[in-house]
Write a structure and sequence with these properties.
Length: 243
C-alpha cells in the first residue's frame, strides 16, 4: 500500500511534481495554485499507487467559484486515461478521461465548500465518488479505466489555493471507535480529573468547557487520513463540524 502527501511549504513546486499543463506553482511558500488562465495541472511523479482502489484529498486555503476551482486526478495511465473530480465553492463534477478528452459523468450543485474543508476523491472498483469532510455527496458507477496508478492535482485560473494534498491506496482495514470519556478542564494531561466513567454521557451548563477523549481501534494497515470531530443535538438529523 502506497501513500504520499504534500503541504507545499516551500518556494517552488519541486521535483516530485511534473507540470502537464499551464503554470502550476507555489504561492507564499505555502499553497499550490495556478499561475495563469485555464487549467494548471501537475502529475505527482515521486511514486505511483499500488492498486486500482485509491483516493486523493486536498484542503483549500482559498476556494474559487464555478467554473474555477481545484481538481484531484486518479487512475492516470500513460495514455491519458483516468478520472478527475473538480471542486469549487458550490459545485462538484466528476469526469472520465479518455485519451485526455474529459467526459462529465456526474455533477452536484448543492454543495457548499469553504476554506479548511476536506475534499476527497475515491476510485474503488467501479464506484467513483466524492466526499466533503467525510460525507459522500456524489457517487457514480464507471468501470472504463482501472489500470492507471498515477495521480495529479490542478487548479483552474489563478484564484483557488490548495494548502495540503494526500493520495494513497484505499485500505481494507477496519476502523472502530471503541469508547470515549469526558474530562474536566481543570489541569494538564497528567492531572486533569475525569467527569464521568468511560462511555458515560454527561450534563453540563451552557458554555462550560469539557474535554473528551476517544479510544479508536484498527485492524490491518489503515490509511493516513484527516479526521474531524462532529456533533449533533439529540433530535437533529445532521452533524456539524467542530471548529
Amino acid at each position: 500500500m502506497a501513500s504520499y502527501s504534500d503541504d507545499f511549504e516551500r518556494a517552488a513546486l519541486g521535483g516530485n511534481w511534473t507540470v502537464g499543463a499551464g503554470t502550476p506553482q507555489i504561492y507564499s511558500s505555502s499553497d499550490f495554485g495556478g499561475g495563469g488562465a485555464g487549467v494548471n495541472y501537475a502529475t505527482y511523479t515521486a511514486g505511483t499507487l499500488a492498486t486500482q482502489n485509491q483516493y486523493a484529498e486536498m484542503v483549500f486555503s482559498v476556494v474559487a467559484d464555478t467554473p474555477q476551482g481545484g481538481a484531484l486526478w486518479l487512475r492516470l495511465d500513460g495514455s491519458s486515461n483516468g478520472y478527475e473530480a473538480k471542486f469549487s465553492s458550490d459545485y462538484v463534477e466528476i469526469f472520465r478521461l479518455d485519451a485526455g478528452v474529459p467526459t462529465s459523468i456526474g455533477t452536484d450543485n448543492t454543495v457548499t465548500i469553504a476554506a479548511s474543508d476536506v475534499c476527497r476523491f475515491e476510485c474503488n472498483g467501479s464506484t467513483i465518488r466524492t466526499l466533503i469532510n467525510g460525507v459522500e455527496n456524489l457517487s457514480i458507477t464507471d468501470a472504463n479505466h482501472t489500470a492507471g496508478r498515477s495521480t495529479g492535482l490542478s487548479t483552474s485560473n489563478t484564484t483557488a489555493r490548495i494548502e495540503s494534498w494526500a493520495a494513497a491506496d484505499l485500505s481494507t482495514a477496519t476502523f472502530t471507535q471503541e469508547g470515549y470519556r469526558w474530562r474536566n478542564d481543570d489541569g494538564d494531561e497528567a492531572n486533569a480529573t475525569w467527569t464521568a466513567a468511560q462511555d458515560t454521557g454527561i450534563t453540563a451548563p451552557a458554555n462550560a468547557v469539557r474535554r473528551i477523549r476517544f479510544i479508536v481501534d484498527t485492524a490491518g494497515d489503515t490509511n493516513a487520513a484527516l479526521y474531524q470531530l462532529e456533533y449533533k443535538e439529540a433530535n437533529d438529523a445532521n452533524w456539524t463540524k467542530v471548529t
